[in-house]
Amino acid sequence: MIPRWQQSIFWILLVSIVGMAAFLIRLRERAQHRLLAVQDVAPLTAATDAPPVPVTLMMANDADGSLMPVQRSETLPSETTARARALLEVLFSEYAAPNSLHPLAALPAVADVYLLPLPTSPSQPPGQPSSGQPPASPDDLAVVNLSGNFVAHHPSGIETETLTLLSVASTLHANMPQITQVHFLVDGQQKDTLAGHADLTRNYLTTEHEESTVESLP
Fold first, then answer.
1. Residue 125 lies in a domain
2. pTM, rounded to two decimals
3. How far apart (Å, rounded) are the C-alpha atoms in residues 47 and 78?
4. Which is more confident, 149 or 214?
């Protein structure tokens, strides 16, 4: 018969082994979660061999409801949609910085950006002389797919929400003039508002901030 003290040691060792295994499994799960979190917040990487270029960010100011151009030098991808997304990543990183005049959560904000050609203007009326100039390039509609997690943490209020949307639209146009309208989705789906107020069901003109103040918007 096995002495009682040996039985006690056996059970103590068994419990210790099981506890250590559970502890190691938990540590591995935590490491995986941290790795995924780092990947989620990692900014879009631009081509390392591309030189920095000047960019214009139309930065919102909550104090007076204005948008002001701010110049930066950034390395951006050459592909059009990737370039548009990278511009917006830079914009939202500015809003997440300390002392931002339009503070937003430091979360990945833009999942994707798609560019779609807008219909060209109607053909020239009969009898009107031709200008002899080739037709202008069609304007683009940018579809900005926002992250649902970012939207869930966006401050609520008509002014704050509208400033965010106009800032995105005017920043895209300032650097990519062919973009003249912007439509917003959230996690690939149509959403009524950004955070309860600003309308997401319509297209935003990229020059809208020049035509009206935030206070006059519906």
1. no
2. 0.71
3. 8
4. 149
Domain membership flag for residue 185: yes
In a domain, 13, yes or no: no
Q: What is the domain extent for residue 164?
A: 50-119+139-216
Q: What is the crossing angle of helices 158-175 and 80-95, to 10°? A: 140
Window from 31-35, 81-85, 190-194, 205-209 with minimum mean pLDDT: 31-35
- Secondary structure, 3-state, the chain: CCCHHHHHHHHHHHHHHHHHHHHHHHHHHHHHHHHHHHHHHCCCCCCCCCCCEEEEEEEEECCCCEEEEEEEEECCCCCHHHHHHHHHHHHHHHHCCCCCCCCCCCCCCEEEEEEEECCCCCCCCCCCCCCCCCCCCCCEEEEEEECHHHHHCCCCCHHHHHHHHHHHHHHHHHHCCCEEEEEEEECCECCCECCCCCECCCCEECCHHHHCCHHHCC
Q: pLDDT tens digits for 173-218?
A: 999 999 999 999 999 999 999 999 999 999 999 988 775 444 443 3
pLDDT higher than threshold 70 for residue 139? yes
Does residue 189 lie in a domain region? yes
